[in-house]
Specification:
The protein has 424 residues and is mostly beta strands. The protein folds into three domains: 101 residues, no CATH class; 187 residues, Jelly Rolls, CATH 2.60.120; 108 residues, Sandwich (Immunoglobulin-like), CATH 2.60.40. It contains four helices and 23 strands. The chain is elongated.
Length: 424
């Protein structure tokens, strides 16, 4: 059996860092997808990047026989390194990729994503169920009572949070429900530490003003008195006798609600053992200090976009530019004309045009358009000017002219057109 050695790992790190630079410099017009997510506002070419800063305007200067690197560096927010590591983790392992898909050939994709933490407070509705008073509703109470002292004394809070603002396709890394525990809210003194479970309600059409131990809306019965719920992915904590926040960490349970209950979180708290001591947490009706009402904290990751790097368009040739010629002046809009290249092995040809406002290094683009995804491209088929097909111009029209008309701002412009082929 062979093992990957240190030399390979070092090479992989260097290759991934180089590939990361390509991702950082990839842009669609003036939009840099990866920089947008990282919070980098700089729009020029980035030469290197570390966990806290990035460098540009790199120059090498020789002085007294020694070479020195001169560079401008800009320092970013402290989480830049964390975000960069997330991106690097998304780059495929080079050893497992076919040659044409390795970063050196610019054929890969990066999945951009965001990490978001949201706190929901208070609930949409909450109440508690009382086995001793099975037809009484407590939806207006300022606390949610808990007890397990059968056969009659069983109190179970039920709660509902709306998390529908979380985009579809999210993955959860945190789902914490927190309630502010009231020490001895009813004055009973027989007390001990007890385990309190939190589970997902399977019935979601219960009402705050109608739910009782027997019914979920004051009229219709629960399938099982005391609330319908599943123990799948339920969690528990041990209540002590100290006033303060109690938190159930339940990312899987909250994700189940998100995934199975249409992004609605319906919870029930219950005990299976304990004493005759009545415990409770503040409800959403508690107004003396609203910061103590029930809350749900969710941290989730969502995919923003998948950016394909040269995955459908690979530059292979420089078409002959026809007009406008050097130093031409005129008024906007401007029609740019070029000849379709022929040295592309009989593959359908696409076009990529860039208009720069500053120089011929094409780092300050006013237009950056591709014929396979942007409108306005045309080619001459021998009789008429027709729309450039998104699948590319075939070999029958190699050498014919192509064009696009653009409205531009005033000033000197630099333009170039590059020919490319679709990748299979």
């Amino acid at each position: 059996m062979e093992f990957l050695g240190q030399d390979y790992l070092e090479k992989r790190i260097k290759d991934n860092q180089k590939f990361l630079l390509k991702l950082l410099n990839f842009h669609i017009g003036k939009y840099y997808p990866l920089r947008k997510w990282l919070g980098i506002s700089f729009r020029g070419k980035i030469d290197d990047i570390s966990h806290l800063s990035f460098g540009y305007n790199t120059k090498y200067i020789q002085k007294e026989g020694q070479w020195y690197k001169q560079q401008t560096r800009e320092y970013q927010q402290p989480d830049l390194g964390y975000k960069l590591n997330l991106v690097l983790d998304r780059i495929p392992q080079l050893a497992l990729l076919p040659a044409l898909l390795q970063p050196a050939y610019r054929l890969a994709s990066v999945l951009l994503f965001s990490l978001t933490t949201t706190t929901y407070q208070p609930t949409i509705k909450d109440t508690w169920l009382n086995a001793a008073q099975p037809t009484t509703n407590y939806g207006s109470d300022t606390n949610l009572a808990l007890i397990y002292y059968p056969p009659y004394y069983q109190y179970r809070p039920i709660l509902h949070f709306d998390i529908s603002d979380i985009p579809s396709g999210a993955t959860f890394s945190q789902g914490d429900f927190s309630g502010y525990y009231l020490h001895d809210p009813e004055g009973w003194m027989d007390e001990e530490d007890v385990k309190v479970y939190m589970a997902r309600l399977t019935r979601t059409n219960w009402t705050e003003s109608g739910a009782t131990w027997n019914t979920y809306d004051g009229v219709n019965s629960w399938t099982t008195a005391g609330g319908d719920f599943t123990t799948t992915n339920q969690v528990s904590i041990t209540f002590t006798n100290e006033t303060g926040w109690e938190t159930w960490s339940a990312s899987s349970l909250i994700y189940d609600c998100y995934n199975l209950l249409n992004k609605q979180v319906h919870l029930i708290l219950y005990q299976t053992g304990g004493d005759c001591y009545a415990r409770g947490i503040y409800s959403r009706e508690y107004t003396t200090n609203t910061s103590l009402r029930p809350k749900l904290t969710v941290t989730y990751t969502v995919t923003l976009t998948t950016v394909a790097l040269q995955s459908t368009f690979f530059i292979v040739s420089s078409p002959t530019l026809v007009s406008p010629s050097d130093t031409t002046s005129g008024t906007s809009p401007v029609t740019f004309i070029w000849k379709i290249p022929s040295d592309v092995n009989n593959r359908p040809v696409h076009a990529h045009i860039q208009i720069d406002k500053t120089s011929d290094d094409f780092g300050d683009l006013e237009a950056d358009l591709y014929s396979h995804k942007d409108a306005g491209f045309e080619y001459y088929n021998g009789t008429d000017w027709v729309a450039y097909p998104i699948t590319g111009v075939t070999s029958d029209y190699y050498g014919n002219q192509a064009r696009i008309t653009l409205t531009l701002t005033t000033g000197w412009k630099y333009w170039r057109v590059r020919g490319g082929v679709a990748l299979s």
